[in-house]
Specification:
single chain; D-Maltodextrin-Binding Protein, domain 2; three-stranded antiparallel beta sheet; globular
Length: 284
Amino acid sequence: MKIVLQKKSIHILTHIKQLQFNNKKRAMLKKHFSILGIIFLCFQATHCLASDNKEAPTLYFDLGEKGGWVPFRNAAKNGGTSIFTELSKALEADSGIQFKTVHFPQKRAAKALIDGIVDFDFSYLEWFKNNDPGPGFVATDPFFEITEYIVTLSKNTHLFPTPESIYGKHVGTISGYFYFDDDQFIRTDFLNENQLIQGLKNNRFKAIILERETAKYWAKLNNTEIGFAALHTSGNLIIRLRKEHSALIPSLNRAIQKMKTSGKLQAILSRQGIDSKIYTMQMK
């Protein structure tokens, strides 16, 4: 009888130990899966954070030297904001692309674009022969109209009734700027628009080519009475982007379209005192 009881006791103890072992095993497994769950959640959180922190593409462009192409590259008023700066900020907000600026002399800026130091410029295709942005470049949809005139002293406006009137003559131009017909006249390059108006005032030449708002600004500062003779170029402002960034064109075009439909683009022009037509159709 005693032996039987001992055997039963041993059997019960063995069963209890087995239950304890199983409980420990379940606890260890539970702890193991809890750790795996935590690791998985951490991985997911890290992945999401990495996605959220993915660097936005960055594009560099030139705003030129102080006083150049007012009010487009540089503000017309001290402490103000230029049109191109406002456009880049609006594009950044609507496209997720970051925009950074540099300030180069015009000739250096033109070379920097070719060399890839900067990624784009604000331009318009009518500056170029056959409206071609050039090899290695693509163009966005347009923003708004820009007009360039043959500008003279007010007394000489009648001398240039057509764009062809400047052919064969000395014409004041900006060094590094494109003119689609500059093989037809004799370029007299100056560093900036201010110097062009001064050269006109001092009879260095009888005609210059300038954007209308820029010409008005510098004529006023130089106390010079100017006249707008024939229209030289009329076109729509675009971004001329280096081709290696062409994948960004759809995002840029969507942002440009949103600026137009939301009224943001018109608000920028109104703040700057610019009365330009906004091109509403999208380029194909």
